[in-house]
Design goal:
heterodimer; A: about 110 residues; mainly beta; 5-stranded antiparallel β-sheet; 11 strands; about 0% helix; globular; B: about 110 residues; 4-stranded antiparallel β-sheet
Chain lengths: ~110, ~110
């Protein structure tokens, strides 16, 4: 079952912060986050594992609430380069291997 | 440099024709995946393979076929049985670890 992302779209001014959420009705083993620029391939940002720690690099970080099966992606002091569509991909506990189910995406636009 | 190569970038097909999309990787990854992307629907899994000579259906396998005769190659055939084949097709691979999926640049298929 497809994870649900919110919001569907967000518009920011450069330097503002944003939070993108991803929730699943299934017990999860991992959550991946990807960013896709228009017409390009998605690019891996980070992975959060069950029982693992909050991840982050530079001004992008993420958390995973195992009790609620929810993950959040935090973008702070946004830059123009952050614009794109963000997808979460979830791996269920009962499936073998890293077969991901992706959400519908959140379109992020950062304006000057 | 290692990566995934998809070809062609754009493909036009007449109704009733089969067409094969190429996906080659030199990352030495065991697992490979095919996803379909339609506007507003995120990425949906068509087929995946975790090892040579073995593959499994994903969520939307009807009208598609694959083969995995070599570790490096995972071609996707869109058959005439696929009712709505116009879409953006993405191939991906991973090493089963924490480095996420690596995606190819995609093939945009249009049925005319």
């Amino acid at each position: 079952q497809q994870p649900v992302q919110s919001p569907q779209a967000v518009i920011l001014r450069e330097g503002e912060d944003a939070v993108i959420n991803c929730s699943s009705s299934k017990a999860l083993y991992s959550v991946h986050w990807y960013r896709q620029k228009h017409g390009e391939a998605p690019v891996f940002l980070m992975i959060l594992l069950k029982g693992g720690e909050q991840k982050g690099h530079d001004k992008i970080s993420a958390s995973f609430n195992e009790k609620k099966q929810q993950s959040s992606l935090y973008l702070t002091a946004s830059q123009l380069s952050y614009s794109g569509t963000y997808f979460c991909g979830t791996e269920k506990e009962e499936t073998s291997g890293s077969r991901l189910t992706f959400g519908e995406g959140t379109q992020l636009t950062v304006n000057p | 440099d290692g990566g995934i190569t998809q070809s062609p970038k754009y493909l036009f097909r007449k109704e009733g024709q089969n067409v094969t999309l190429s996906c080659e990787q030199n990352l030495n990854h065991d697992a490979m995946y095919w996803y379909r992307q339609d506007p507003g629907q995120g990425l949906r899994l068509i087929y995946y393979s975790q090892i040579v000579n073995d593959f499994q259906k994903g969520d939307i396998a009807e009208g598609y076929s694959v083969s995995r005769e070599k570790k490096e190659s995972f071609p996707l055939t869109v058959t005439s049985a696929q009712k709505n084949p116009t879409a953006f097709y993405l191939c991906a691979s991973d090493d089963g670890g924490v480095n996420g999926y690596t995606f190819g640049s995609g093939t945009r298929l249009t049925v005319v």
